[in-house]
Each structure stands twice: as structure tokens, then as C-alpha cells.
């Protein structure tokens, strides 16, 4: 045993201690030899007084080496903490006892050790794998010392309706157990292979060091054998005691999780959250079972120890929303149903042939919402239940969404536009209690293992229900709920209770769940109403998913056109006109990609369809920048409409607004140079009703490190937003949320832009897409716009290739007509692109051409610059171009 051979471990930390055992596994009077990594002596030599002790407990088959990053961080004079990382008996470099130690024994063993150490409070336990259970058992037994608990991938309860993870089931099989865990080192090697990215060879060697030879692996096999698979197992009472004891544990808790874990999946995280609902949670997307190896956990642990991250957040109180001055989102729906307009159309959806496929009056909508809410309540949906809605926009989704909100359930909305992989990642992360979906979504849930009790939209055959694991249907619940004749709820949910988890598009990384309260959703409704003058009686064509459900909340009649809302480019001019004609529409919501296809398919429309579009008074387009040229063509199709392009994001929509006329004025100001700061980006106008915007100036390295918001013209920085309708938090992403609000009172958007002297905001791109060239920071949008003015270029993207600070600026252009294959652009085109960019003040190092730009799935409009940068790097390094 040579500590110097363990990378990342200070030899001074390694120590041994003799401990008198009181465990039932040992003969009275037995003394056991423990090995630990402990930085107490190091702190003392440095004259540092620790703020407390982290008691770190490894699982199987790791050892105290797992916690070396915490030991190093705890030895830092900036935040000294004593860190005691134990090797459990029969594990690591502690004594091989020859006794079979059960869970209760191991909890008792840990108590013997801390008594021998004379450990005083405050103590924060840290646990992983089965070390998590043991650390929690110690925590429950030592409330006088306990100050908090930290958990990484672990579990304290096995649901009765599901089996243990397949990997553990295999390890427990009689034909595998002895050989896999003890005779050979297979169990260790499989565990080490779960690291993402793979462990370096030196780290793997260190993890293997205590387990050379079958005799030293007996504890590994015994640990596996002690997994309580059911109530008959000897360790089941001890596990149950820990699980139930957690419900009364009130100390701060932090959970750091690797969702890519085949053993302790998100369902175990969800169980822990139900037992410790005040816990701070962060899921490291892409990390797995060995999360302490996959990610830096020391930084968040010590940030949490230092301050506000330990807060549990506001308490949820069940009071009437009206009592707090926040009318419920469904208020206008209820009022219209009870008034003279009750028999008028409220919501409709179109068929492919241009006819109305379904519609409900306000009275029918209110009745259906009430009935479905009653049925869902009887099925077990409660306040705080998470309900994933996998239903296309239209009548069914409108009904079930408002039914869930009325019950106080939390709706989870992650659309199919994320793609199968992204959608699955989002649903698994949200861990819904119920999943309501169409047949296709339910089939995906079965194949991909999504959590939640399943409810179909329509009635299914008995065979189909069994195949998909479906309990009932919305139709059946509505029938049952109508028969119950429930009274309307006397009290709505608390305005500050969770209402919805809406997922971002994932255009700059994995989609993030954005948590909204009822108050914030109501504020979004009010902001839209005040900014755009949408009042009760408006008639809305909802061709943009984020706004497809706002109709009833605004008191507006709404219709869903015949299209796949998750693929905006499927909207045709004919379908838009048919939807507008069906309700005599005054307002249209549509994304830029949808508008492009509307323009492309406008030929051959009848006069009736033209007249229907001619009655539209307001068009809103959001989701990506909308070029003035596109809006000009749309204006010809909707001659009476005022065209607006609000800027926002899933976290806050809308933030600013600008009309077509205002866009033309801004671009004229930029061309003339008469307004300081005008130009170099997309002008998105001024903040909407109730919102504020500012920027944090960029540093020379392309970051925005400061915290002082500014609005001076011409200062480029990260855009900040403050408004009543800004999100509550990122769901189970504490570190992401912490970063997004580190400027007090503001949400940091990750977008980059500046103000002009007229107070208008110009967006220059994403912080993640900034190019840091030698001596220059290049934001992409202004240069891209200059290139896109060339008649031979469609969409352009500017990306950086090479190390930060010395990046080459590369332009990737979509040619008109489309290039036959991707690769270096023709010399003539490359010269014109370089010239256009130079006029915008940017030197282009290379020009590549593609037949079509890769875009995000949801909007079909946001160019995937990260993907393009990787492709460009490969091409410029001499690789085969292929498809970007």
C-alpha cells in the first residue's frame, strides 16, 4: 500500500486507526483496523480551522479514492473543511474481517469509527452507491452531529412494481455471483467501465489496487449478496428504516446525479426527492454511475456548503390564487363558459381536407375540463403530481392541460421536435408520475422505458392496452368524471406552486427543463395580452407550439391548422388560410420556418382563402430571427396584418418586440450610421410590457464575467432579462440555475447583443458561439447577415476552428442553388463571401459550402453552429467532408 502511487492523493492523507467493534457481526471485544483518507493533520499543520467535517462513504466496489477531489478542495485555505473518506471494513485497504457484514452492521461500524475518531459536529455526510445508504443510516443515528447530507447516485428503496437493475440481478445470479464478484475481478472492471469519459489507466490501476486477489475481494461479493431484493431479505428492515427515516430529516441536502447510470437510474433520484423534497438537485447530463469521476463535484459541494444553495426554497401553501391577486390561468375560460358567449366556438382543430375536424364551445370546453379533472383526480393525480403530456396541440391537449393545471398537477411538455434521443432524455429526467399520450408516444414509452402510469387519449382494445401498459384513457376518465358531477374546486393552487416544466429546444446542448409557477404562467398570459392587445374575443390560429395553448387563457378562440406542429415547415399557405377561415381569424402565431413554407406554397390559392388571410390583423413570429425580406413577402399575403417578431426564449417569452415597420427603420438607421450602436445583429426592438433588459459586457476571452448590468449604446455583452414571467428555475439543474441568476434580479440568457442609442436591442448570437480570433472577439450574426445579402447565398453561419483565443474564422454558406456536395467553396464564391464579411469588419480564414445548413429539429430555423464547427474542423484538417 503506497499512497504515492494513487494519482490525486496526498500521501499525508492516508492513515490507519484501530477501532473497537460493537457490531453483531463480530465477537465482543474485537478490534478492527480501518484505513482512511483524512486531511485533518494537513489542515492543522497549515494552521487552518475547519468549518466542519465531510464524512465520505464509498460504495461497492470502490474505496476512499473516490473522494480525492473533496479532500483536495477541503484542504484549500479558501474553504477549509476536514474530509474523512473511509474504507469500509472488508473494502479498500481496511481489514478483511472474514465476517459477513449486513447493512445494519455497516451502519454500526461507521458509528464505531466516528466514535473512535472523536468526530464532533457539524458533520455533513457524503455517500455513493450503497455507501449512500450507510451514510444516511449514520446520519439518522447521529442527529446531534449532523448538519447536512450529500448524495451521489444511490438508492434507499426498491419499488415493489419493478425489479432491481439488470446489472445487479446478473451479479446476484448463483451462476455468476461468486465468479463475477470474488473469484475474478470482472465486477470491478465493469464498474470502472461505467465512467464517462473512460478512466485514465492510472486511475483504473488505483481503483484496482486494494482488490488484487480473490481473498481481498470477499467483501465485494458480500456487499452484492447483501442487496435487499425483497422483504424477505435479512437487510430489508434496515434499508426500510433508513428510507422511512429520511422523511423526517430536515437538514439541508444536496443530490448530484449522473443520469447515464444503468444501476441507479432517475427513478431512484425521484424516490429520494419525494423523501427529501427540500433537497438541492443537479443532474449532470451525460454523466453516469461514477459521477464523482465524470464531473467536478468538489466545486458544487463547496459552493453549496458556503451559502444560499443550501436553502430549500419557498414553502408551498395551499391558498386561493385569487387571494393573492393572481387570477388562475383558466379564469377567462370559466367566465366565458358562464356568459352569453358560452355556446360559441372556443377551440377547434383542422382536418387535412380544410374542414373543421373537431370543435368545442366554451361551455363544452369547461365541461370537458371539469370532467377530465375529476377523472384524473380519481385516478390518483394530485397537487404536485407530474404529468407528461404527449398529445399534439388541439382539442385533446387543451382539455387535459387545463384539467391538470386546475388540479394543481405539474404538466411536463417536451415535444417530439427534440428527436427520439432528446425527447427520451427529457422525459426520463422529469420522471413524470403519469404519462398521457397518443399511441405513438405510448409505444415509445414502452420501448424506451419512460416512467409514469400510462393513459391513452382514446379508448384502446384490451390487447393494445396490455401491450402498451395503459391503465385507462382520457375518454374513459371524462366519462367517469362527468358521472361524478363534481363541484368546481373552491381553492386553486398556490400561485407560487409549480405549474409546468417546459423543455428548451436543445439547440445549444441537451434540452433543459424550465420550471414555471402558476404566477409566472399568468404573468406570461398578461404580458402577451398587454403587449399585443389580445383581448377576449380575439380569434387565433396557433401554428407555433409554445402559444398553441394560450387561447383559452386569453379568452381567445383558437384553432390548430392541419400541420405537424413539431415540424413547423409542414404548414402550407392553404392550411393556414383554411384555419383562418374556420374562425374568421384576427391573429396568427407562426414560426419563421412555417412562414417560409407558407410563402413557398402560396401559389394556386382560391380567392376565398386570400380573403381569409386578408382579414388577419396581427401576425406574431418567434423562435428564431425573421429576415425583413421574408416578412415583406408575408405582408403581401396578409395585407391588413401588423407583423411582429417578439424575441424571447423558453425561460422568458416574450422579452422584446418589434414590428416590420420598426425593423425597416432600424435597418435604415444602421445603413445610414445616424444612430450610434445601430447594426451588427438582428434588431429585436424594445422590452415588452413589464420587462427590462440589459447586458453584461464581454471580456477579451469572449466570456461575460461581470455582474454589473449596463444599457449604454454599442456595448456588446450577454443579454439579461428581468420580468414577472421569467422562469422559476431550471428543473433539477441547480448549477445551471445558479449561474443563470448570478446577477441578482436578472436572468442571464446566454444570448449576446447590444443596445443602440434609440434604446433598441440588437442580438448578435449566442455566448457559446462567439469566435475568439487573435486579438478579436467575433459575434456571428452581423457577419452572417452581411454574407446572406449575396444573391448566391441562402443561410450563412460563422464558426470558430482551433483553440480559443487563436481561432480561425470560418464561414459556412448554404448556396443558391444548393451545392451538389459539401466542402470548400468555389474560389469565386469564396472571394465574394470574404469581401462581404470584410465590409462587416471580419476577416474570414476559410469558406465552406453546404447544400443545406443543419438546423435544430424543433424550429427548423436555428443553425446548429456547434455541429458545423466540428465538421469544419474535420474538413480543414484534411478529412472527408461528408454531411455536416
Q: Tally of extended strands?
A: 36
Largest sheet: 8 strands, mixed
What's the CATH topology label of the largest domain? Rossmann fold
What structural class results from the helix and strand content? alpha/beta
**Nearest-integer average pLDDT:** 92
Low-confidence stretches: 309-323
Radius of gyration, in angstroms, nearest whole number: 30 Å
Q: In the CATH classification, which architecture of the largest domain applies?
A: 3-Layer(aba) Sandwich
Q: Give the N-to-C terminal Cα separation.
A: 51 Å
Return the domain count.
4
* Widest sheet, order of strands: 1-2-4-3-5-6-7-8
Short key terms for the protein model shown above:
eight-stranded mixed β-sheet; single chain; 884 residues; alpha/beta; Rossmann fold; Luciferase, domain 3; 4 domains
Question: What is the structure about, briefly put?
Answer:
By secondary structure, the protein is α/β, with parallel strands linked by helices.
Please tell me about this protein's structure.
The protein has 884 residues and is α/β, with parallel strands linked by helices. The chain is 34% helix and 21% strand. It is built from 31 helices and 36 strands. The chain is globular and about 95 Å long.
Explain the layout of strands and helices:
Elements: E1 14-20, E2 31-38, H1 40-45, E3 53-57, H2 68-74, E4 82-86, H3 103-117, E5 123-127, H4 130-141, E6 146-152, H5 166-172, H6 177-183, H7 186-192, H8 201-208, H9 218-225, H10 236-245, E7 253-257, H11 266-275, E8 280-283, H12 291-294, H13 298-306, H14 331-338, E9 345-350, E10 356-361, H15 362-379, E11 386-390, H16 395-407, E12 410-413, H17 419-430, E13 434-437, H18 439-448, E14 453-456, H19 462-468, E15 470-473, H20 474-484, E16 498-503, E17 513-517, H21 518-532, E18 539-543, H22 551-554, E19 557-560, H23 573-583, E20 587-590, H24 592-600, H25 607-614, E21 618-620, H26 628-637, E22 642-644, E23 647-649, E24 652-657, H27 660-672, E25 682-687, E26 692-697, E27 717-722, E28 729-730, H28 734-740, E29 747-755, E30 761-766, E31 771-773, E32 776-778, H29 780-788, E33 793-801, E34 808-815, E35 823-824, H30 827-839, E36 846-850, H31 865-876
Parallel strand pairs: 3-4, 3-5, 5-6, 6-7, 7-8, 9-19, 11-12, 11-13, 12-16, 13-14, 14-15, 18-19, 18-20, 20-21, 21-22, 34-36
Antiparallel strand pairs: 1-2, 2-4, 9-10, 16-17, 17-28, 23-24, 24-25, 25-30, 26-27, 27-29, 29-30, 31-32, 33-34, 35-36
Amino acid at each position: 500500500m503506497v499512497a504515492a502511487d494513487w494519482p490525486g492523493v496526498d500521501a499525508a492523507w492516508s492513515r490507519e486507526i484501530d477501532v473497537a467493534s460493537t457490531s453483531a457481526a463480530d465477537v465482543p471485544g474485537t478490534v478492527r483496523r480501518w484505513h482512511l483518507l483524512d486531511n485533518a493533520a494537513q489542515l492543522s499543520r497549515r494552521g487552518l480551522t475547519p468549518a466542519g467535517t465531510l464524512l465520505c462513504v464509498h460504495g461497492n466496489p470502490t474505496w476512499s479514492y473516490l473522494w480525492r477531489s473533496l479532500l483536495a478542495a477541503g484542504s484549500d485555505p479558501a474553504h477549509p473543511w476536514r474530509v474523512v473518506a473511509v474504507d469500509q471494513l472488508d473494502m479498500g485497504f481496511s481489514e478483511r474481517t472474514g465476517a459477513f457484514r449486513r447493512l445494519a452492521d455497516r451502519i454500526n461500524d461507521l458509528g464505531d469509527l466516528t466514535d473512535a475518531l472523536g468526530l464532533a459536529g457539524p458533520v455533513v455526510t457524503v455517500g455513493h452507491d450503497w455507501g449512500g445508504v450507510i451514510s444516511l443510516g449514520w446520519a439518522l443515528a447521529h442527529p446531534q452531529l449532523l448538519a447536512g447530507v450529500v448524495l451521489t447516485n444511490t438508492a434507499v428503496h426498491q419499488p415493489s412494481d419493478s425489479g432491481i437493475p439488470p446489472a445487479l440481478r446478473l451479479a446476484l445470479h448463483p451462476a455468476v455471483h461468486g465468479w463475477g464478484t470474488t473469484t475474478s475481478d470482472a465486477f470491478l472492471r465493469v464498474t470502472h467501465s461505467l465512467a464517462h469519459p473512460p478512466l485514465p489507466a492510472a486511475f483504473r490501476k488505483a481503483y484496482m489496487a486494494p482488490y488484487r486477489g480473490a481473498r481481498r475481494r470477499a467483501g465485494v461479493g458480500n456487499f452484492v449478496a447483501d442487496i435487499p431484493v425483497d422483504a424477505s431479505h435479512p437487510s430489508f428492515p434496515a434499508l426500510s428504516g433508513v428510507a422511512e427515516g429520511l422523511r423526517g430529516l430536515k437538514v439541508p441536502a444536496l443530490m448530484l446525479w449522473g443520469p447515464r447510470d444503468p444501476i441507479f437510474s432517475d427513478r431512484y433520484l425521484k424516490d429520494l426527492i419525494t423523501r427529501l423534497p427540500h433537497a438541492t438537485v443537479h443532474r449532470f447530463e451525460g454523466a453516469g454511475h461514477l459521477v464523482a469521476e465524470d464531473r467536478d463535484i468538489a466545486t458544487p459541494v463547496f459552493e453549496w456548503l458556503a451559502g444560499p444553495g443550501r436553502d430549500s426554497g419557498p414553502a408551498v401553501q395551499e391558498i386561493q390564487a385569487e387571494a393573492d391577486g393572481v387570477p388562475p390561468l383558466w379564469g377567462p375560460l370559466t367566465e366565458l363558459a358562464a356568459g352569453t358567449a358560452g355556446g360559441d366556438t372556443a377551440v377547434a382543430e383542422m382536418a387535412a381536407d380544410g374542414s373543421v375536424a373537431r370543435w368545442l364551445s366554451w361551455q363544452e370546453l369547461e365541461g370537458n375540463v371539469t370532467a377530465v379533472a375529476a377523472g384524473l383526480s380519481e385516478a390518483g393525480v394530485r397537487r404536485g403530481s407530474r404529468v407528461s403530456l404527449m398529445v399534439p396541440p388541439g382539442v385533446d391537449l387543451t382539455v387535459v392541460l387545463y384539467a391538470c393545471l386546475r388540479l394543481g398537477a405539474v404538466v411536463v411538455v417536451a415535444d417530439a421536435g427534440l428527436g427520439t434521443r432528446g425527447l427520451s432524455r427529457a422525459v426520463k429526467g422529469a420522471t413524470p408520475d403519469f404519462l398521457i399520450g397518443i399511441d405513438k408516444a405510448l409505444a415509445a414509452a414502452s420501448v424506451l422505458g419512460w416512467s409514469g402510469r400510462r393513459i391513452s387519449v382514446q379508448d384502446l382494445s384490451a390487447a393494445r392496452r396490455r401491450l402498451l401498459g395503459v391503465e385507462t384513457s382520457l375518454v374513459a376518465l371524462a366519462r367517469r368524471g362527468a358521472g361524478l358531477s363534481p363541484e368546481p374546486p373552491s381553492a386553486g393552487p398556490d400561485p407560487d406552486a409549480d405549474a409546468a416544466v417546459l423543455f428548451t429546444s436543445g439547440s445549444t446542448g441537451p434540452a433543459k427543463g424550465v420550471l414555471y409557477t402558476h404566477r409566472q404562467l399568468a404573468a406570461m398570459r398578461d404580458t402577451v395580452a398587454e403587449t399585443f392587445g389580445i383581448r377576449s374575443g380575439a380569434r387565433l390560429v396557433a401554428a407555433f407550439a409554445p402559444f398553441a395553448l394560450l387561447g383559452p387563457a386569453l379568452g381567445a378562440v383558437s384553432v390548430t391548422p392541419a400541420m405537424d406542429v413539431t415540424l413547423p415547415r409542414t404548414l402550407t399557405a392553404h392550411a393556414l388560410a383554411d384555419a383562418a377561415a374556420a374562425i374568421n381569424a384576427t391573429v396568427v402565431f407562426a414560426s419563421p420556418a412555417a412562414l417560409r413554407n407558407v410563402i413557398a406554397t402560396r401559389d394556386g390559392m382560391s380567392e376565398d382563402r386570400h380573403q381569409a388571410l386578408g382579414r388577419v390583423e396581427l401576425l406574431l413570429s418567434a423562435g428564431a430571427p425573421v429576415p425583413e425580406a421574408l416578412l415583406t413577402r408575408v405582408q403581401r399575403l396578409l395585407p391588413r396584418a401588423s407583423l411582429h417578431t417578439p424575441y424571447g426564449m423558453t425561460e422568458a417569452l416574450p422579452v422584446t418586440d418589434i414590428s416590420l415597420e420598426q425593423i425597416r427603420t432600424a435597418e435604415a438607421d444602421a445603413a445610414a450610421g445616424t444612430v450610434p450602436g445601430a447594426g451588427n445583429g438582428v434588431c429585436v426592438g424594445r422590452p415588452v410590457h413589464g420587462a427590462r433588459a440589459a447586458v453584461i459586457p464581454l471580456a477579451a476571452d469572449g466570456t461575460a464575467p461581470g455582474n454589473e448590468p449596463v444599457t449604454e449604446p454599442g456595448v456588446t455583452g450577454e443579454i439579461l432579462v428581468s420580468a414577472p414571467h421569467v422562469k422559476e428555475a431550471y428543473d433539477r439543474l441547480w448549477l445551471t440555475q445558479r449561474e443563470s441568476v448570478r446577477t441578482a434580479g436578472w436572468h442571464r440568457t446566454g444570448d449576446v447583443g447590444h443596445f443602440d442609442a434609440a434604446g433598441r436591442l440588437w442580438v448578435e448570437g449566442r455566448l457559446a458561439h462567439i469566435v475568439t480570433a487573435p486579438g478579436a472577439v467575433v459575434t456571428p450574426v452581423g457577419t452572417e447577415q452581411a454574407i446572406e445579402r449575396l444573391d448566391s447565398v441562402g443561410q450563412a453561419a460563422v464558426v470558430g476552428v482551433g483553440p480559443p483565443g487563436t481561432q480561425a474564422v470560418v464561414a459556412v454558406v448554404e448556396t443558391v442553388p444548393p451545392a451538389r456536395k459539401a466542402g470548400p467553396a468555389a474560389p469565386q464564391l469564396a472571394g465574394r463571401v470574404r469581401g462581404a464579411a470584410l465590409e462587416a469588419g471580419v476577416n474570414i480564414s476559410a469558406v465552406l459550402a453546404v447544400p443545406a445548413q443543419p438546423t435544430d429539429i424543433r424550429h427548423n430555423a436555428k443553425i446548429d453552429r456547434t455541429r458545423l464547427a466540428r465538421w469544419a474542423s474535420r474538413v480543414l484538417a484534411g478529412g472527408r467532408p461528408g454531411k455536416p
